[in-house]
Amino acid sequence: MKRKGAQIVDIKIDELIRDLNSALAAEALAAYRYKLLSKMASGINSEPIAKIFEEMSDHEWKHVSSFMERILQLEGTPITNTSDWPKYSYSTYKEPPKDPSDLEKMIRDSIEDERAAIEFYNNLYKKTQHTDPVTALMVQEILADEVEDEDKLLRLLGE
Ligand SMILES: [Fe+2]
Ligand SMILES: [Fe+2]
């Protein structure tokens, strides 16, 4: 290990890289899914919702970038083959509903994904809090984004 920044990590590095790749995969799938929903959403109330999906896609894509960078800092390898995404992801990919005007289904599936993210990042934060402060800080910020996403989606449903 060449990097001092990687040597200071006081946690099993293989496990940590595995978790970070799991997050990378889930975020990439979420970014794709939100982009798809933003283009598919139709019906009289769809415009503001499509816009929210579009913004969320951009946010999740930024998360992909953060996880990739962190894996490389730790001298690991970010997933190189996109077909590995579903295998690694902490959340199962949810195809858009057959009916593109079923906005409620789109939103409910998204809430489920955000909750999976919140759970995963909360655990990863706890794992790294005292062993890898740099990952912990990054995960803490991403966790806050996912909490915001869940809240935004629940508000759309008036819940
Ligand atoms: Fe995310
Ligand atoms: Fe999110």
* Number of E strands: 0
Helix content: over 70%
Share of β-strand residues: under 5%
Output the structural class.
Answer: mainly alpha
Which CATH-level-2 architecture?
Up-down Bundle
Overall tally of domains:
1
Highest-level CATH class: Mainly Alpha
The CATH topology is what? Ferritin
Describe the model.
This protein is mostly helical. The chain has a single domain (11-77, 86-156), classed as Ferritin (Up-down Bundle), CATH 1.20.1260.10. It contains six helices and no strands. The chain has helices spanning 4-7, 13-40, 46-73, 85-88, 103-128, 133-156. The radius of gyration is 17 Å and the shape is elongated. One fe (ii) ion (FE2) binds at residues 27, 30, 60, 63, 117, 142, 145-146.
Quick rundown:
The protein contains six helices and no strands. The protein has 159 residues and is an all-alpha fold.
Detail the topology: elements first, then pairings.
Blueprint (H helix, E strand, L loop, with lengths): L3 H4 L5 H28 L5 H28 L11 H4 L14 H26 L4 H24 L3
Helix pairs in contact: 2-3, 2-5, 3-6, 5-6
Bound molecules: fe (ii) ion (FE2) (2 copies).
